[in-house]
């Protein structure tokens, strides 16, 4: 992050210049001839506009006037569609708009003082940052004859509830009602702060309404400042943890830590919430070293720094010590086609083994909402009904000896928010793609999901919701969970996937664990030799 | 004519891999008749900085979905996205979220 740039908040007060855009249609519902405006027009008729039937504001705000040279009744337009005359006014005194000008909105603060009599005399009422639907309700029943706008841009209305004639007030002084274009000094409701659609305009935090908003939340659409975002993000994780009753006081919880963004944010937030809400948990970091030179060794350095930063104990289990194979060695033998299968299967077991060594009660992983939605899609596309049914569960129950229950406290956290949380908090995380090529199929699912999200951010939550509420009809055949005949780990076959993969590696038959060779399991278990034909099939790896 | 502007670009979260692994770039955008906006900046980046696999950075005239853009530390969704008009000394950050976590 560069430190030498100007303070963005002060700099961005300068609004953009050529952003305004309004389209006039001569008939209702955006029909007929149309005319585009990007700046003021004092006389639309001279510009060839016969009448104004409907208006589309692409970037505003704008004010329209009944008479040429910005005189007469006023109509204020913000970004949006105005298909008919009555969609922008209900005064109906006039049916012409002859002039238009864009409104410069240059302040985020809004303060205005209204006076009963001309020249700022008599009873007064001061309004700060608030819409006032009715002055009567505020105890002010007087006329409004003069106005002082200290900051912001305002619209006054003749009647309560923002009805009747409209009067635009920009920064400055209006000594009597004729100066703001009123024939009678009557204003009974007020709207504060027109919001500009200026491209370079800062937007205020919708939560504290004080600081500048720094991000738009994909889940809620809210614009928040950094502090309000941190709080909202952390509280949502806290509520997720409470609602699903993920932890009990006194438990030892292992945080699966890869050094990447998700697990770094998870470790940070778990530690923070454990302190803030006295969860009473003993937290530790648990990492797996797959033995990938130039990738995992670097990311483990990040985890080691996290260990110092968060003062949490760290346990690293390596493929090499657990299986006798590093991923580097596995890739040498199997090539770059099915290596991700080995890595995924081994990692799952490795985390369990590490967790048991550390005697943790639970493992939490950094899976975020995007990951869960992506997994739902992948299981649908692969027809994996058993996984589809359980992949949205926020926690797994213990499936047997040697399997530690897992949970996903970030299950409802969007990836965008995780990345921005890490970025704004300047958390130390590692981001490099695994050198052994990403899983191609997951990559397609991810790209598809990101495309969906860019059109409709709620897609991610909706896919999770669909996954959570799917039920599999009776009679669909499900694999029966048993235990591995060799290592005792859970398995729906005679041998668990890790043992089959390992056997394949050790015997130089890397395809053994790829594809379906279940009927060979009994043979392998009883150490019977494979036939020549079987061996040939398992060897022929075409990379 | 708009004067040339100096801006600071930063690529992170793995996006730097498409730029020879270089995270920070101080660049000067040449003078042109219209003010520079973010849409034009993306074209400029593609022509002048992007070293490989442009499809992993741009899609259509915008960034590829999954790449976050920050303008002076604020989410570009609050800043008009592609229509944002660049100013001298702006700091634009591109963070990929497409990399493993």
Give an overview in words:
The complex is a heterodimer of chains A (543) and B (101). Chain A is of the alpha+beta class and 543 residues long. Chain A has 4 domains: 21-102, Gamma-B Crystallin, domain 1 (Sandwich), CATH 2.60.20; 111-191, Sandwich (Gamma-B Crystallin, domain 1), CATH 2.60.20; 223-469, Rossmann fold (3-Layer(aba) Sandwich), CATH 3.40.50.620; 482-526, no CATH class. Chain A contains 15 helices and 23 strands. In chain A, strands 19-18-17-20-21 form a 5-stranded parallel beta sheet. The longest helix of chain A has 19 residues, at 339-357. Chain B is mostly beta strands and 101 residues long. Chain B has one domain (5-96): Roll (Ubiquitin-like (UB roll)), CATH 3.10.20.30. Helices cover 11% and strands 31% of the residues of chain B. In chain B, a hairpin with a 2-residue loop joins strand 5 (67-71) and strand 6 (74-75). The longest helix of chain B is centred in the middle third of the chain and has 11 residues, at 38-48. Chain B is globular, with a radius of gyration of 13 Å. Chain B starts with a strand and ends in a 5-residue tail after the last strand. The interface between A and B is large, with 51 and 38 residues. Chain B: This is Ubiquitin-related modifier 1.
Oligomerization state: heterodimer
Main interface by residue count: A-B, 51 and 38 residues
Looking at the overall shape, the CATH architecture of chain B is Roll
The description of the largest β-sheet of chain A is:
5 strands, parallel
How are the SSEs placed, and which strands pair?
The complex is a heterodimer of chains A (about 550) and B (about 100).
Chain A: H1 8-11, E1 21-27, E2 31-37, E3 54-59, E4 62-67, E5 71-77, E6 80-82, E7 99-102, E8 111-117, E9 121-128, E10 146-151, E11 154-159, E12 163-169, E13 172-174, E14 189-191, E15 215-216, E16 223-224, H2 226-243, E17 252-256, H3 261-276, E18 282-289, H4 296-310, E19 314-318, H5 319-323, H6 327-334, H7 339-357, E20 362-364, H8 369-382, H9 385-390, E21 406-407, H10 415-424, H11 440-455, H12 459-469, E22 482-483, E23 490-491, H13 497-507, H14 521-525, H15 532-539
Parallel strand pairs in A: 17-18, 17-20, 18-19, 20-21
Antiparallel strand pairs in A: 1-2, 1-3, 3-6, 4-5, 4-7, 8-9, 8-10, 10-13, 11-12, 11-14, 15-16, 22-23
Chain B: E1 5-12, E2 24-29, H1 38-48, E3 58-59, E4 62-63, E5 67-71, E6 74-75, E7 91-96
Parallel strand pairs in B: 1-7
Antiparallel strand pairs in B: 1-2, 3-4, 5-6, 5-7
């Amino acid at each position: 992050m560069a430190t030498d740039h100007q303070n963005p908040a002060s700099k961005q007060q300068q609004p953009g210049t050529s952003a305004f855009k309004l389209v006039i249609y001569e008939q209702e519902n955006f029909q007929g001839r149309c005319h585009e405006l990007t700046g003021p027009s004092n006389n639309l008729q001279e510009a060839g506009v016969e009448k104004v039937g409907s208006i589309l504001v692409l970037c505003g705000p704008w004010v329209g006037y009944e008479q040429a040279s910005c005189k007469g009744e006023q109509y204020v337009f913000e970004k949006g569609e105005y298909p008919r005359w009555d969609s922008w006014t209900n005064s109906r005194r006039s049916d012409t708009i002859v002039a238009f000008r864009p409104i410069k909105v240059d302040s985020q603060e809004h303060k205005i003082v209204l006076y009963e009599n001309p020249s700022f005399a008599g009873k007064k009422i001061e309004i700060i940052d608030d819409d006032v639907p009715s002055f009567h309700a505020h105890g002010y029943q007087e006329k409004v004859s003069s106005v002082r706008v200290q900051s912001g841009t305002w619209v006054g209305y003749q009647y309560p509830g923002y009805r009747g004639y409209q009067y635009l007030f920009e920064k400055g002084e209006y000594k009597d009602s004729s100066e703001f274009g009123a024939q009678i000094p009557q204003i009974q409701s007020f709207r504060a702060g027109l919001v500009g659609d200026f491209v370079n305009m800062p937007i205020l935090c919708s939560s504290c309404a004080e600081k500048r908003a720094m991000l738009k939340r994909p889940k809620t659409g809210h614009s928040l400042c950094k502090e309000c975002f941190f709080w909202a993000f952390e509280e949502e994780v806290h509520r997720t943890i409470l609602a699903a009753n993920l932890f009990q006081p006194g438990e030892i919880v292992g945080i699966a830590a890869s050094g990447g963004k998700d697990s770094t944010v998870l470790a940070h937030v778990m530690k923070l919430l454990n302190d803030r809400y006295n969860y009473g948990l003993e937290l530790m970091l648990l990492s797996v070293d797959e033995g990938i030179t130039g990738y995992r060794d670097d990311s483990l350095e990040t985890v080691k720094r996290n260990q110092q930063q968060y003062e949490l104990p760290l346990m690293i289990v390596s493929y090499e010590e657990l299986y006798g194979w590093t991923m580097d060695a596995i890739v040498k033998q199997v090539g770059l086609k099915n290596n991700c299968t080995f890595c995924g299967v081994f990692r799952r077991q490795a985390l369990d083994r590490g967790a048991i060594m550390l005697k943790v009660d639970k493992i939490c992983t950094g899976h975020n909402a995007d990951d869960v939605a992506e997994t739902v899609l992948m299981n649908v596309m692969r027809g994996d009904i058993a996984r589809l049914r359980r992949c949205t569960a926020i926690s797994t129950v213990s499936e047997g000896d040697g399997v530690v229950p897992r949970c996903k406290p970030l299950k409802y956290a969007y990836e965008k928010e995780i990345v921005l949380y890490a970025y704004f908090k300047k958390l130390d995380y590692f981001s490099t793609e695994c050198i052994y090529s990403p899983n191609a199929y997951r990559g397609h699912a991810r790209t598809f999901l990101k495309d969906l999200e860019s059109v409709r951010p709620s897609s991610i939550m909706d896919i999770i919701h669909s996954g959570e509420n799917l039920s599999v009809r009776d009679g669909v055949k499900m694999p029966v969970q048993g235990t591995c005949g060799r290592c005792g780990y859970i398995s729906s076959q005679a041998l668990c996937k890790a043992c089959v993969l390992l056997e394949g590696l050790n015997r130089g038959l890397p395809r053994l664990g790829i594809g379906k060779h279940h009927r060979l399991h009994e043979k392998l278990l009883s150490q019977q030799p494979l036939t020549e034909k079987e061996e040939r099939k398992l060897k022929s790896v075409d990379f | 004519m708009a004067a040339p502007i100096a801006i600071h670009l930063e690529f992170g979260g793995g996006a730097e891999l498409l730029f020879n692994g270089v995270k920070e770039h101080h660049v000067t955008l040449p003078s042109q008749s219209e003010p520079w906006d973010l849409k034009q900046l993306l074209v400029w980046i593609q022509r002048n900085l992007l070293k490989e696999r442009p499809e992993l950075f741009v899609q259509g005239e915008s960034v590829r979905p999954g790449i976050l853009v920050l303008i002076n530390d604020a989410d570009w969704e609050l800043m008009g996205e592609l229509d944002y008009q660049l100013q001298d000394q702006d700091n634009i950050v591109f963070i990929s979220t497409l990399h493993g976590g």
